């Protein structure tokens, strides 16, 4: 039997241990004041004040109302996708087979908060025990006790523990009490990290719920599996932020012991409660899910905390991530077994071999084109799709290794592929990218998920790829001609306001996905065109488009993704946007772009998992016995999260493209969260690396199964690892060692390419170099980067300690792996600190480096 929601306000039962005559209760410290009054209907919050820099501020709409959900029968989990007028919502279209099950699961009656009996009350009884307040209430289905206290360490935090004992068999869910209610028409910001955010209630349900654009106008309850942090936050119109956060251990663990438990649902998060009030709310357990069924006499508990302060959402988020969930715990626990430098050498071997990298060549109109097999889903394919990923990484690796397979074979065929990928026949699409993928059976290029052309695909697969190759081949006129065609196509398709359509149908040439706006960094392609071709019209257009983007995307917190199979759910393109705006700032020196970049980067931190807290408990992954921290999701980013994204079932991804950018942002802002997130994503992910190839899996759920259907991803791994190491070199040397960076890579994030021009090494110059199996460090906590000053004939070795403890290592060289025809003179060794001061060192001495330190070794060669 399904029960209709009702409100039950019940009177207190006799219990001499609880105060019968005390009309008020209060908790106070230096920064919080919280007062309850017995209104005759129970104890209601009458004052909630917080002290800021300008004195005390009171929250309006104080309430303190409790909510329980109860159902005698199993709650329904079937999808209810109707609008408020009862009309069925047709979303998504039938071809989006990957996301339809996820959408249905997230539009169940439980997800939409329509199930169960809502029991609302103010507690009738209260007593004070030391510095804690204990409230109690008996309903007709349960007895509830709530213990409130101020956190002794974090003065803006209020800790609550609710204990429920069942008086009837059934399903129970406890909601966090509503401290205050807010004006839906006037608030500064609301956010459930990784799911949705914004400054307005969005009445377009699919836009808000599926894409995270603003706050849905319904009391939806979202799962913890894509909430990057287990908190719901609201900053009201008086700029007071209220966050409610589940205590560690409340939510699901994604891998409890020997299999994925990612889809277990123990915690629900919401910004609009069952009473349709704007109030951050958590639910535990979730009605009908694990731990929610109780027999009469059985009990459950829910521990959580409120944070109330006069700062914005990001400061509250930092507190939750850093303090409550101890984000740097993984960096303390990690024990690296495979360095990034060693992975680079394995990846080099992988991409050189046709069989491991699945490299294929084809004749295309008399030209040999080359790419790697793609075994995922592609529109119109017969499992005959091929693709190249990171052109900047390809040219970089070839240049710094001078490997003949890369230089003489891979690059030529890959460049032919790139030139063939452009529409050059004239007409509507002249200059645009013909598609990411080549289908060799039908000998045509196509897009991932339909017969359409996206402007951002031209930014990615024409301008970014061609721009990065041009850094290494500045005299290649074919590339410059292709870039000009691509940039001019973008100019002709840019709207007068400065934005683009999401896509055009290839046959009708009409706009598609008109329910969406192109909240993506499409403008960056014009910036690359300007930097390469030096035609000012491209810069002027990039500025105009970036201004539109800041106003409509960044300021509103609205972003769109670039994965067609997920119908463009927000993804790593948000991180790209931050770096794109930083690059625009570097060129224009307009501080607005730097501010917008930092704001976007703050949003992107909500795509990084911060829970559960890693530990050393045993986990079984196939035949391997591992510790919890080794397979932790903490520090890893989404491909796409939210309601639609792949993170719902597969968890985050191993491509840490954001790591280098986050190091650069720490350098810029001194916000330590960026640095911790960068290092946690980049370091000690051994458990996800295929030991044979050195290729990490893409999705967390695949563990260490390697490239899987995505063999081309190895190039992105080469790219992000290099970008991260170069960012750390610059940071630790305070810019004394710095190599010029190129342009963003397409699609997966903000990492950049290097190695096309000499960099600064203190007061000298040098070219990046990688000589396979030349350098050997015995300690995998240490990484290295090499460079050559060919004029002075000096070989530089930069060694980084990537651990939070002092590390020591033996250093060895395989002299036969040095430049053919040249010899390295180890007796000339000199050692320098990260500041450039000379340190004592003799060949054969062990290397000893401080936590997250850097030392530089210089050797002459003949």
From TrEMBL:
Signal peptide feature range: 1-21
Keyword Signal: yes
Example of a GO biological process term: carbohydrate metabolic process
Keyword Lyase attributed: no
Keywords, alphabetical: Signal
InterPro entries associated with the record: 6-hairpin_glycosidase_sf (IPR008928)
Protein name (Swiss-Prot/TrEMBL): Glycerophosphoryl diester phosphodiesterase
Annotated source species: Pedobacter kyonggii
